[in-house]
């Protein structure tokens, strides 16, 4: 099963990656920029596996660049308390 098949699994996956990045000293601005790049890649290249991902993709596709950065930042905030906190 892919982490993209279930939204909670996806959030846990992102949360784990976020905690790893923070543990390695990555600054919040860099995390936000990576989240923006990942959001753009997913919206263009990955089919939504569930309705939450489809909604995020649709919102991303109608957003301007500033709004896309806001979506990416909100996703980071959403997963900050997810994952295993490694």
Offer a quick outline of the entry:
By secondary structure, the chain is mostly helical.
Structure write-up:
The chain is mostly helical. It has helices at residues 7-23, 28-45, 51-62, 65-79. It contains four helices and no strands. Helix 2 crosses helix 4 (65-79). The radius of gyration is 12 Å and the shape is globular.
Q: How many strand elements?
A: 0
The SSE string, one letter per element, is: HHHH
Work out the helicity level: over 70%
Instruction: Describe the global form.
Output: globular
Rg value: 12 Å
Give the CATH H-level superfamily: Protein of unknown function DUF3243
Instruction: Please outline the major beta sheet.
Output: none
The CATH architecture term is: Orthogonal Bundle
| Average residue pLDDT | 85
Structure classification: mainly alpha
The CATH topology assignment is: Cytochrome Bc1 Complex, Chain D, domain 2
Q: What is the CATH class designation?
A: Mainly Alpha
What is the strand content?
A: under 5%
What is the distance, rounded to the nearest whole angstrom, between the alpha carbons of the first and last residues? Answer: 22 Å
The stretches of 5 or more residues where confidence is low (pLDDT under 50) are: none
How many domains is the backbone divided into?
1
Number of alpha- plus pi-helical segments? 4
